[in-house]
Amino acid sequence: MKKFFVLSFLAGFAFLLAGLAEGQEQVEVMVTNITVPVRVLDGDNFVDNLTVADFELLEEGVPQDIQALYLVRNTNIERKEGRGEFSPRTARNFYLLFQMTDYNPKLAEMIDYLFEHVLFPGDSLVLQTPMKNYSLSPQALATKPKKTLAEEMNSLLKKDIKTGNTEYNSLLKDLKRIVGNISGTSPMANIEDDSSSASLSGIEFMLNRYKETAARMEEQRLLDEKKIIRFAYALRRIEGQKQVFLIYQREFRPEISSAVLNTLQSTYQEFPNIISDLQDLFQLYTRDLSLNTELLKKAFADSSINFNFIFMNKSPDYVSGVVMREQSEDIFKAFSQVARATGGYVDNSQNPAAGFKNATENASTYYLLYYSPKNYQKDNQFKNIKVTVKNPLYTVQHRLGYFAN
Questions:
Q1: Over the range 88-118, which residues count as b (16 or more CB within 10 Å of their CB) and which as e?
Q2: Is 41 in a helix, a strand, or coil?
Q3: Domains of the chain, CATH where assigned
Q4: Which tens digits make up the pLDDT trace of 314-335?
């Protein structure tokens, strides 16, 4: 497999310019067709017998005329209805993004399922590990045995997850050790005389060491919003289905227990700098995730990406004297919203293979609705789309909208 580099480019919707008759003032008339992939579910089952009359589509609250409906299953158009003649691109492009620190054996089951039951001739695949990006061309998929491809991909994934997180796991181990030392340190440790500098040297050193190590570990897991946005925009011009799967592993941050914290605060109550560090590091700490969730939702929806979030839950390691604090709440909240804004799937379990299977099954069948917005204007504003069906018991999944640019 060759290394894959995503090109950064921006794409807009196509516009049709028409002029008035010769000799009259020229007027720009903009016409664009918007496609909306829609999934309609009755419980967990896709509803495949709907017609145009069953749907209502609104843009910014204004009802729109649905010109055509296509029922697509995998790469096949099974049914078409409506006045307009369109040419849906049903080629499928899969992007698997792994953000994790430990290899999970269930990932091998996921990769096997991908090659045995999901990928078809003509599909393309991009794999992003903590180390590199790899691409699998349709030609490779057509010529090499699926079992061989699955074994090669799983080997790459296992190696890159281990190698790419060497520093992170080393820092995590250091944090556990530092917390253990803080929790087991006597307030009188390292005291050789009555000077305050001697009595404080141990706790001050360990708190500073903890702060520096935690900051370095956080840098290893930092999500670059600009890169994520560029990735979404880069997929605009990719034709056909764009299915993105973010496999994200739950994180923990080693901390001291509340009992130890109370003891330390009582011991060092006359030293404001120590109290301040204890509160900032363990009592008032919140992860500063600077992701603009609304912008992410709009960027992925605008590019008509089916974004799926597979959150790999796991139990924290038990370390004597150490409390492993959940560190992924903000990530889970942000990308769950992105998935819902694109009509995608969210899974939260300890089995990524099962979550991936559900996500791919959810994305395999869908309706494509076409419409031309009334009074369309190229104003660079985000246009919200709302699709409903007559049966209120059905669940409707679709992208949030698009930018008129």
A1: bebebbbbbbbbbbebbebbbbbbbbbbeeb
A2: strand
A3: 92-367 (3.40.50)
A4: 888 888 889 999 888 888 999 9
